Amino acid sequence: MEAIDSYTQIQSAWSTVHSDAKKAARISQNILNTTTKKENALLYAQAEITLAFCHAHEGKNAEALSLVNQTLQVVEHYQSIEWIVNAKRVIGYVYSSLGDLKRSGDAFEEGLYLIKKYDLPIDPHYLNNLGFIYYELGEFKQAHNQLLEALAVAQEQQHDIVPLLLSNVADLHLQFGEIDEAEEFNKQAFTILQTKVEDRNSLAHCHSIFGLISKHKRHWEEAYESFALALKMYQEQDAKYAVATILIDMGGLYSDQGHYTHALENYKEALEIAESLEAVLLTQEILQRMSDVYYASEEYKRAYQYLLRYNEVTEQIKTKEVKDQLSRYMTEAQVERMQREAEIERLQLKRESEEASIRAQVLEDSYQDLKTVSEIGRRIIANQEDAEAMYSVYLDLNRLMDADIFGLCLYNKETQEVEYRAFVEQGILLSLSNKSIQDTSSLSVRCIRENQEIHIRKAVVDEDYTLRESGFPDKNPRSIHFLPLSMNDETIGSMTVQSYEQDAFSERQIEMLRLLALYLSIAMSNMLKSEELQLQTRKLEHLAKTDPLTNLYNMRHMKQLLTQSMETYHKSNKSFSILVIDLDHFKEVNDSHGHSCGDFVLQALSRHFQSFTRQSDVTARWGGEEFLMLLPNTDLQDARTIGERLRQSIEELEIRFNTISIHITATIGIATYSSKDWHVDELIERADKALYIGKEAGRNQVVAYGSE
Asked: Torsion angle of alpha carbons 35, 37, 38, 43, nearest 10°?
């Protein structure tokens, strides 16, 4: 094959990767099969970089990274700037697909530096993509600068991407709260798009930005009109994901105005689309918003239901994030292994000296250690905070190094304290007290506060100064290492490994500890998210069961308890009774002293019921000034006795509201569940009838159904 023809083919293959990766791979592989490194090292390297790009498009990230890292040295040697940039682009692409946006951005930046230094043509799409990476990283200023540069290049080239870039810059100004600047850039985009009516996607995006700008200005009608235009255009193009995002924006618009019914209609439509697309991040956002809207409209049961669904989706995302993290670490480990294996193979073939053999063994041992740490990490993520899992970490570490002490602590932002979740010394799991984040004597606190590793190789310990946090005062660690646990640029805790011997850990072992800290960071971050969701779930579950004014159970939950009591009766034949309690002349309290006073009386009586009843009894607010009390294992005669004592205690109760002294009475109807196989509603109906008889007879009395 002619060299010139081969160079033409490889350029063609490179430009084909995005549209037909398999074809590009075939061309690259054919050149590799018909050329040797010795014959034409540069052409061979270009074919390998192209093949690596194809691997990346097929999700073969380890193979792609290994191949491009090996080949990068060759194109750097030949100073082939274009192909160095291409290699950096492959590296950026791989790390982007692995979710490591920081490394991805670094690779793209290195490529961009070379493009500018050697005055190579700049593709504005390249700059726009780099701007997107910085946007996703939350580095909005850097993203803004990158987009402005992309805009300048695109305008100079009269590129079709200009209006899209203008709207993207406007979006960033919104992030900064610079509404006027956002509006100016978006108007420029809109002006250009008036002459390019065929670019409906960019025009729809432009209208959506106008909607966000109007929303920031609280111009609700204008915002709605802009969102409606964007929605119509996206629907015409069947751009379902974009349709869902606009529906979310419209739902937020209604929610901000307190129009919860309209907000939910938009969210439900968006949710249906998101679920059909299996767009889990979008689904998660919608479920969270719907739960918040139901909560704001005091529909706590539905808020709780949607929070549960949000929790389920969050667990799916969390699992995917863990898999992505593991994929990233294992890809890097696999790349390292492949490189080591290549080095080991070279050394084994050479075998010219004993040094080569030793080096090969060191590389092999290093890989085995990395594999062991990865196995430990996977167990940690699977078990999260399980005490046995943390203890097993201590045991596993001692297979790899001299670790007398292993500790793990987490930072609680709410309490401003550092909480020890595991601390093992000499094989004993110890309990250590929490420390303030301001504690200046604790190394674990300092590690978290400064987000810095602490390495002490030869600790000096005397009577006046001790570095230890332990239950073994007669043993003093000499090698002390603390590593921060971080997730998404936020320090969440620290881990420590210590030894009684000085200089106990090699540099390789410290690298292993860093990898272990990454796994612990994932596991602890997931555990903290789960704890937070559980707390929210418990709060909403409580709200779904209780009356917000009195904090007693509500009617819906009491009916569930009555149904359970009925089922228990048919199994054990133990009777239960109910009291329906209605406050006499309660309307007069509201009319004379106001509803705030009425609410205060209801709250005071609710507290009185809870202090009066037995531990097994349950009270609910049945509605208005009516209450229902469930008395388990209580027949009709005992229920009547309890009811009479309750009636008398209410009559004697003095309730003071500001300077007003209020006395109130109650009429109580009683019914007992029996072998007549009544339904719960029939039981309540009988108690209500007894209550009605008491009211007709003059109030402030107890009537038991069946004995009146």
From this structure: 70
